[in-house]
Design brief:
DNA polymerase, domain 1, 4 helices
Length: 116
């Protein structure tokens, strides 16, 4: 019985450590740096209070958001050109590739502003 415990306990301990590591990795979120200095020397007019105005943001600025790559950024730009400004974040769901899970990721980083 002692030999079985000697082999069993390190395995259980290893599994416990691996499980903690896995949960720690899954729990991490992507850190977005939306500071005025990252977009231009004068700052971005789309950035206010740490949130990006999707009605003024450039495609490059949009790609800094979680879940938004070059293709979706391009689709957002096209949608704005064809349909005018976004009036709510729900309208982003009209963009191919943006669903409820992407909207949930975006909400802390975006805002809907008036077009100037």
């Amino acid at each position: 019985m002692k030999k079985l415990t000697m082999f069993f306990m390190p395995g259980v301990l290893l599994m416990f450590i691996l499980t903690l590591f896995l949960f720690a990795c899954l729990g991490q979120t992507r850190v977005i740096s939306l500071s005025k200095d990252t977009h231009s020397q004068a700052g971005s007019p789309a950035l206010e209070n740490g949130k990006l105005d999707i009605n003024q943001a450039t495609a490059t600025e949009l790609t800094e958001l979680p879940g938004i790559g070059d293709q979706i950024a391009s689709e957002i730009m096209n949608h704005r050109e064809q349909n005018g400004i976004f009036k709510s974040t729900d309208e982003l769901m009209e963009i191919p590739g943006i669903g409820p899970s992407v909207i949930k990721k975006l909400l802390p980083y975006i805002r809907i502003g008036e077009q100037k």
